[in-house]
Amino acid sequence: MRLHILGICGTFMGGIAALARELGHTVEGSDANVYPPMSTQLEQLGIALKQGFKAEHLQPAPELVVVGNALSRGNPAIEHMLDARLRYVSGPQWLGETLLAQRRVLAVAGTHGKTTTTSLLAWILESQQLAPGFLVGGVPANFGVSARAGAGPDFVIEADEYDTAFFDKRSKFVHYRPSIAILNNLEYDHADIFPDIAAIQRQFHHLVRTVPGNGRLIVNAEDARLAEVLGQGCWTPVESFGIDAGDWRARLTAADGSAFIVSHKGREFGEARWALSGRHNVMNALAALAAAHAAGVDIERALAALSEFRNVARRMELVGEAGGVRVYDDFAHHPTAIATTLAGLRAKVGSARILVGMEPRSNSMRMGAHADELAPSLRDADAVVFLKRAELSWDATRVVAALAGRGRTAAGVDELVAALRAEARAGDHVVFMSNGGFENAPRRFLAALG
């Protein structure tokens, strides 16, 4: 079948494209921004890419159009698709019906940590020669690709609560029908589509409703909002995890979270030592271990796999070092993620200075939904430069003011890089935080250092 994927360079839709190609379909696609690393990955798979959303990109007509959720009415490609009565489907529905219906699905949901936890779980299964399929919202270093069909019975998927498509406003994850589902955490996010936290909880409960009675829910014991979700009704056995509460627990043996002892209902299984740090990543590991155990993996062997885990690109990825300054690229989309990431780095580097270059880019960030929480989330940063683009709809200067001399704004990436370059000195750690491309700012800064 010849498929055309609209929005193909997003991490999710790019994964759909890779899976469709692996299943033997002829795949092409278009996007507003065709750029690496996803464009490179897709071109290496033999997938033709087209820049922009034009009606002629859908001529001659493909047999099926797979529509990404970034596209809406008024888009030229969408209008042509509808006028020409082309057959179309959302990415999540295509995935659920084409691939997931035949597999045991392990889904990872939550406001934070989905990508890392999904990658962890896939790697644990892979380390036991179970050859899982997976779809991750990033590129796990252990695999080098964001998606594969896999030869084994299991499929691990990052289960996003964002809406499915312009014609299907349910969360993506309702299409996946998991046997094992992780509920990592739940906070207010996606202010562009959810009016309040209750609306997100409602979608999470829709996911809970789809998990069978002979499946398993792996739930953060420290999250009161998830407890409220389960309080709306639960028909599946639940196992909880947490550092301070839960069936699965971790006792930190290194302050930065790089080593911890895992126990289940009071029984200790052993110590994990790995390259990651931060309390949030220890929680991610507990969730992945509990889900792997529910899938039948021996927990001691799963623990051993953590030592060989390499995190996803852009999750506190060390880009390089020059002049004694270490430069990181981090996918930051929410104040809680910013705070926990910087707290983990602070625990690791001690009193060394941490400088942050930040692009408020997610829809919620650009709308100002998290503006009041931004300054507190940066408490571990010694200096912050905000990218204040002209289209930013709220005044970032009040966030800067709340940083009490530790912050400033920059109107463009060149100015931001120059400001950080002037501030940085040997021994510093410079973190670039954005859930977008950030105009390649981390590598531009590294080049400026060199």
TrEMBL record:
Name the protein family: Belongs to the MurCDEF family. Mpl subfamily.
What is this enzyme's class at the first EC digit?
ligase
* EC number, UniProt record: 6.3.2.45
Q: Which reaction does it catalyse?
A: UDP-N-acetyl-alpha-D-muramate + L-alanyl-gamma-D-glutamyl-meso-2,6-diaminopimelate + ATP = UDP-N-acetyl-alpha-D-muramoyl-L-alanyl-gamma-D-glutamyl-meso-2,6-diaminopimelate + ADP + phosphate + H(+)
- Where is each Mur ligase central domain found? 108-292
What's the protein here called?
UDP-N-acetylmuramate--L-alanyl-gamma-D-glutamyl-meso-2,6-diaminoheptandioate ligase
UniProt domain Mur ligase C-terminal: residue ranges: 314-436
What keyword terms does UniProt attach to this protein? ATP-binding, Cell cycle, Cell division, Cell shape, Cell wall biogenesis/degradation, Ligase, Magnesium, Nucleotide-binding, Peptidoglycan synthesis
Residues forming the Mur ligase N-terminal catalytic domain are: 3-101
Give the record's pathway.
Cell wall biogenesis; peptidoglycan recycling
Q: Which positions are annotated as binding ATP?
A: 110-116
What the protein does comes down to:
Reutilizes the intact tripeptide L-alanyl-gamma-D-glutamyl-meso-diaminopimelate by linking it to UDP-N-acetylmuramate.
Q: Which cofactor(s) does the record list?
A: Mg(2+)
Gene3D superfamilies for the chain: Mur ligase, C-terminal domain, Mur-like, catalytic domain, NAD(P)-binding Rossmann-like Domain
Q: What GO molecular-function term can you cite, just one? A: ligase activity
